[in-house]
Amino acid sequence: MPFSHHSHSGQFCSHASGILEDIVLEAIRKGFKIYGLSEHMPRYAPTELYPEEIEANLSVADLYAKFESFLTEARRLQEKYRSQITLLVGTEIEYITPSYKSHIKAFLAKHTIDYVVGSLHHVNGIPIDFSKELYTQALASISHDGNASLPVLFERYFNEQYEMLVAVRPDVVAHFDLIRIFEPVKGMNVTKSVWQSMVRNADFVIGYGGLFELNSRAWKKGLVDAYPQRDILKYIISRGGKLTLSDDSHGPADVGMYYDRLYNYLEIMEITTLYHLDYDECSKVVVKELRDARDHQFWVGVKNW
């Protein structure tokens, strides 16, 4: 039973491609039984717009309108393809400043959303996954006396992530160690202090029962492992953390991207149990367990994609 909890479409996300229905159709073609639609929640200030949004003359109001349209379309597709696939309608939240705690609360109270994907895409208010240039800006913004320190950037990321986790308690924690996107290595950046902050965050998620996604998009970015990388993943596994799968697709061509590698990652990390979200008999979204995950018939089809 293939599943993913994290996806985007060019119809509603400026840095993705394709229309939402084509993503759903590709998920059906590849045999997915559960697929999460999780467009970004709107950001709240013009200064938080991404470069391609500014270039397209989009406003904060446009982002809100897009998200409203996404919810309408996602529910339409959910009903249209109900007999072929279970579509979960969620959102990937943003947490750029502490004020987002109240923004998110009001946002979720206003909209009917099945589940929340919790992410951190910024450090010190600057995007860290949009481009290497902005990553470097984020690094420079926390430098002291002109000396930029990657371990300090890593620790700042995990501290801000902790604020998001405590405020939101997301159902699915996305790309746990995204900060490694342009600096993947490695021990030199994971000082004792950084490691303690990573462990603290992981323990918090484990404590409230959140799912950690194994995010295959990391391979598209050139990393050795899926997010989370294997050092912190080993810890999560040792503590009984619940793992799920996400392709973090940004268009139809990304659906199920690198799921063959995910199988190998499960094998290397000796992961035999996965978890996923699904509806129960009362149409409530709940966590379900998939045992013997590596032996499931699903993987036979994946290798033929």
Features:
305 residues; alpha/beta; TIM Barrel; 7-stranded parallel β-sheet; 11 helices; globular; histidinol-phosphatase activity; EC 3.1.3.15; histidine biosynthesis
Structure characterization notes:
The protein contains eleven helices and eleven strands. The protein is globular. It has helices at 20-29, 51-55, 60-80, 100-110, 132-141, 150-168, 186-189, 192-208, 230-238, 259-268, 298-302, and strands spanning 3-4, 34-37, 86-92, 115-118, 122-123, 126-127, 172-173, 211-215, 242-246, 274-279, 285-290. Helix 6 (150-168) packs parallel to helix 8. The chain has one domain (3-302): Metal-dependent hydrolases (TIM Barrel, Alpha-Beta Barrel), CATH 3.20.20. Strand 1, helix 1 (20-29) and strand 2 form a beta-alpha-beta unit. With 305 residues, the chain is α/β, with parallel strands linked by helices. The strands form three sheets. The protein has a seven-stranded parallel β-sheet.
Radius of gyration: 18 Å
Tertiary shape: globular
In the sheet with the most strands, the strands line up as 1-2-3-4-7-8-9
Quickly give the CATH architecture: Alpha-Beta Barrel
How many domains is the backbone divided into? 1
Organism: Jimgerdemannia flammicorona
Family: Belongs to the PHP hydrolase family. HisK subfamily.
Pathway: Amino-acid biosynthesis; L-histidine biosynthesis; L-histidine from 5-phospho-alpha-D-ribose 1-diphosphate: step 8/9
EC number: 3.1.3.15
